[in-house]
Automatic annotation (TrEMBL):
Taxonomic source organism: Brassicogethes aeneus (Rape pollen beetle)
Record-level Gene Ontology MF annotations: mRNA 5'-cap (guanine-N7-)-methyltransferase activity; RNA binding
Name of this protein: mRNA cap guanine-N(7) methyltransferase
InterPro entries: mRNA_G-N7_MeTrfase_dom (IPR004971), mRNA_G-N7_MeTrfase_euk (IPR016899), RG7MT1 (IPR039753), SAM-dependent_MTases_sf (IPR029063)
Catalytic activity: a 5'-end (5'-triphosphoguanosine)-ribonucleoside in mRNA + S-adenosyl-L-methionine = a 5'-end (N(7)-methyl 5'-triphosphoguanosine)-ribonucleoside in mRNA + S-adenosyl-L-homocysteine
PANTHER family: MRNA CAP GUANINE-N7 METHYLTRANSFERASE, MRNA GUANINE-7- METHYLTRANSFERASE
Length: 417
């Protein structure tokens, strides 16, 4: 039996033994965690009307899908997304949801940059942003004061926009005399198929941190793609380094579908449509279609988390933490409250005079009204119920790279995890 057969058998066994496959349909309602009093907040933007299937222009999945899988569909989708300025983004229906998710990423990155810096003292920090998109996290890396960044993404148009953002950031930094900005290299590649190390400027580079935000689930189209993604995350990550990220929670996705007794669920903000039997979800290739307010609209793949953890062990990655977004928020909110307010992650409620709310559903602020009954005449910050239902689909994960315990005859390391 080959190593690949051994691995697949181990993954199937782990899945069969996992309690996570026996998913309960009940979903815990947690809304009050997302309500925090705010001293001051500016007026919220007017609500934009969501594109309907009749008005939205969609690429043909059938035309783009081929024997190469859905990679071209995903790349096409993200290459077609128009780059918008800050002013335009602030008018979006999902501006607070987007800001809140950025806050999650900021706090996650900050936490592990601090851990690395605490253990490595003044050692320069080198990072791989696996699936960097348009470079939305560039400012986070600047704030983290890293030394070098590798940005890789399948969407070449997005990567060009990332380059422009970095150039603009560097010019602003020079103009304000804020010191040096980290060095950077760009790799246009399908991270589920290409070996990134072969494309590095320095293949011997040792990384301290690998970040993969809202991307890893695309690799679970097949076992070989998931393996390649893990190899890219782990191969140059030095022992003691961290692999961090965010992705959809497969348990929650299936639980909601079962609760609704349908393969499609969502609200006026997002919709998830499953292409598999919820009573027998596959370990790989469990495709579903995710739409988010006309911004995200492409196929994604279910990540069975015990399989995810088991597969990571092959590459020396040991799970350190898994948290739903609301649990992560509860744990770090005190440390991140100022940033939460500065980034307008929560919407002011009741809204300031002359302003409108982004939520349009009848019960979008029912939780806030209930909370205010015991607080009196105050203003709070919150997400709408529709936004919360979308955000609570996600989780954070953290792996730490361990030292190999032995080496195979071909030079492949093995790990005791």
């Amino acid at each position: 039996m080959s190593d690949s057969d051994d691995l697949e058998s181990a993954l199937l066994l782990a899945a069969a033994e996992s309690d996570s496959r026996n998913i309960q349909p009940e979903i815990e309602e947690k809304t009050e965690e997302f309500i925090e009093e705010v001293v001051e907040q500016k007026s919220s933007p007017k609500t934009l009307k969501r594109k309907t299937p009749e008005t939205a222009e969609e690429p043909s999945t059938k035309l783009l899908h081929s024997n190469e899988g859905f990679a071209k569909v995903v790349a096409y989708h993200y290459n077609q997304l128009e780059e918008k300025g800050q002013a335009e983004r602030s008018k979006s229906r999902i501006v607070h949801l987007r800001n809140f998710h950025n806050w999650i990423k900021s706090m996650l990155i900050s936490e592990f940059i601090s851990k690395i810096r605490g253990s490595k003292y003044n050692e320069p920090i080198r990072v791989l942003d696996l699936g960097c998109g348009k470079g939305g996290d560039l400012f986070k890396w600047q704030k983290a004061n890293i030394k070098h960044l590798i940005c890789s993404d399948i969407a070449e148009v997005s990567l060009e926009q990332c380059k422009q953002r970095y150039t603009d950031m560097k010019h602003r930094n020079n103009r304000n005399r804020n010191g040096d900005v980290f060095s950077i290299e760009y790799i246009p590649a399908d991270c589920t198929k290409a070996r990134l190390r072969e494309k590095y400027n320095d293949p011997s580079l040792r990384l301290n941190l690998v970040s993969c935000q809202f991307v890893f689930h695309y690799s679970f189209e097949s076992l070989p793609q998931a393996e390649r993604m893990f190899m890219n995350a782990a191969e140059c990550l030095q022992p003691g380094g961290y692999f961090i990220g965010t992705m959809p929670d497969s348990n929650d996705i299936i639980a909601r579908a079962k609760k609704n007794n349908t393969r499609t669920f969502g609200n006026d903000l997002f919709e998830v449509s499953l292409d598999f039997d919820t009573n027998d979800p596959p370990l790989f290739g469990g495709k579903y279609h995710f739409q988010l307010d006309g911004v995200v609209d492409c196929p994604e793949f279910l990540v069975h988390f015990p399989t995810f953890v088991e597969l990571a062990k092959k590459y020396g990655l040991k799970l350190e933490r898994k948290e739903k977004f609301y649990d992560f928020y509860e744990r770090v909110k005190e440390d991140g409250m100022q940033l939460l307010t500065n980034t307008r992650s929560f919407e002011a409620y009741p809204p300031p005079e002359g302003s409108s709310l982004v939520g349009t559903a009848k019960d979008d602020y029912y939780h806030a009204d209930e909370y205010l009954k015991s607080k009196g005449n105050v203003q709070i910050g919150t997400l709408s119920k529709s936004e919360w239902e979308a955000s609570s689909l996600y989780l954070t994960f953290v792996f730490v790279k361990v030292k190999p315990t032995s080496w195979k005859s071909d030079g492949t390391p093995t790990y005791d995890i």
